[in-house]
Amino acid sequence: MVILTGNTLTLEEVRRVVFDKEEVSISQESIDRVNKSHEAVQRIVKEKRVIYGINTGFGKFSDVLIDEEHVEELQLNLIRSHACGVGELFPEVVSRTMLLLRANALLKGYSGARLVLIERLLELFKREIHPVVPSQGSLGASGDLAPLSHLALVLVGEGQVFYKGEIKETKEVLSIVGLEPLTLQAKEGLALINGTQAMTSMGVIGYLEAEKLAYQSEMIASLTMEGLRGITDAFDEDIHLARGYSQQVETAKRIREYLAGSQLTTRQGELRVQDAYSLRCIPQVHGATWQALDYVKEKIEIEMNAATDNPLIFDDGEKIISGGNFHGQPIAFAMDFMKIAVAELANISERRIERLVNPQLNDLPAFLSPEPGLQSGAMIMQYCAASLVSENKTLAHPASVDSIPSSANQEDHVSMGTIGSRHAYQIIQNSNKVLAIELICAMEALDYRGIDKMAEQTRNYYMNARKIVPSFKKDRVFSKDIEAISTWLREEKVSSVQS
């Protein structure tokens, strides 16, 4: 059971409740905070105090006062008008995460929303009724207005949802499960959409996959080390302690453990004095990716527990401040950092693939072909990997350096963090396929070297992967092999190869 407090949610807890369906409950302290915050909003409406978003318009309309009898209409109009998302849909798992993170943020008690609103978000989460949310249309400041408006539509019985593997009209699904649409009260529409939960949820799912891929990349690189008879001296602990980066030290340690007992790896001077950088510098490059991922993890976990709407209510309504916590710059930077870090895992992987297939760089059959010339073997697999890493380079261009004014120049600097999170996710998918290609090629090289000479851990990994993709006997449609291994790498059962 994961207890939501608004302050303590971790990535590991998100993984358990989103993927493993662990139950969620709400802490009593957060319930008390939510109730007090909502009572403050009710007093403001009754006392006719002029507060942004409660009884005023939005954005450039912040100076337009709204009569008390139109407060509920104001909130509904806000949600409908802001639901302008376009393009491909966010993956359903991202939509599911958005429900969880929006509920957690409202439980901080700074937003003025009723408890019933939060309970409905979590009820949808529990019943796996996930809002259909287009992925394009957010500037990443003023919150993820368009994506979160599509989420909010579901609470009022509008829009569409994913339900039991299909996309259905929300009203139909609510009727099936016996839930009535809610009527949004003062500030509740704004509280639902003024937040960074779209970019953060996309970032959460991306990070969890990137972390998995980073561990797998070390094991796959270890198989390549054996396939190319790599020199293990480069992984000696003293080298890495001498530089001082803990992530580099830990990467080298894991690879030493994976390769322990191998009869295929070599020592300095046995075959050659030094390996190419793509082998020799694995701890330095992969370790640097871990440094970036550690940074990303820290920022995501802060943001998951952040109050990111506007205005915020403090001191039981005595202090209400319009600020800018909805601005996505911290997550925008983190997503751009993750893009670059994961793209580099693919970059160095593609260089190892080249060393596995290029007969000028190894003593293996050309392109790992069973009959070089008659059969092309892995030749075009390297082309595919090269294409993917090149695409990653364009996607890795930082979204956060861009901005464009909106709302008649009232909102004149924005983060583009949601674009960054989407591009990061695409880079992760591309990199997964590059590493799948490296694994296929490394296994083929190991067939020539001798499976019986492999280290115990790498051999076990090889045997499991061989259940997915068999050895080359003759040319076949390798696209299917790449997709099969790529899917296998994403599966939870191989989510961690840490020893």
From TrEMBL:
Keywords: Cytoplasm, Histidine metabolism, Lyase. GO terms for molecular function: histidine ammonia-lyase activity. Pfam families: Lyase_aromatic. It is an enzyme of class 4 (lyase). There is a cross-link at A141-G143 (5-imidazolinone (Ala-Gly)). CDD domains: PAL-HAL (cd00332). The modification 2,3-didehydroalanine (Ser) is found at S142. InterPro entries: Aromatic_Lyase (IPR001106), Fumarase/histidase_N (IPR024083), HutH (IPR005921), L-Aspartase-like (IPR008948), Phe/His_NH3-lyase_AS (IPR022313). It is found in: Cytoplasm. It catalyses: L-histidine = trans-urocanate + NH4(+). Pathway: Amino-acid degradation; L-histidine degradation into L-glutamate; N-formimidoyl-L-glutamate from L-histidine: step 1/3. Its main location: cytoplasm. Contains an active site 4-methylidene-imidazol-5-one (MIO), which is formed autocatalytically by cyclization and dehydration of residues Ala-Ser-Gly. SUPFAM superfamilies: L-aspartase-like. The keyword S-adenosyl-L-methionine does not apply. Its EC number is 4.3.1.3. Belongs to the PAL/histidase family. NCBIfam families: hutH (TIGR01225), PRK09367.1 (NF006871). PANTHER family: HISTIDINE AMMONIA-LYASE. HAMAP family: His_ammonia_lyase. This is Histidine ammonia-lyase. It comes from Robertmurraya mangrovi.
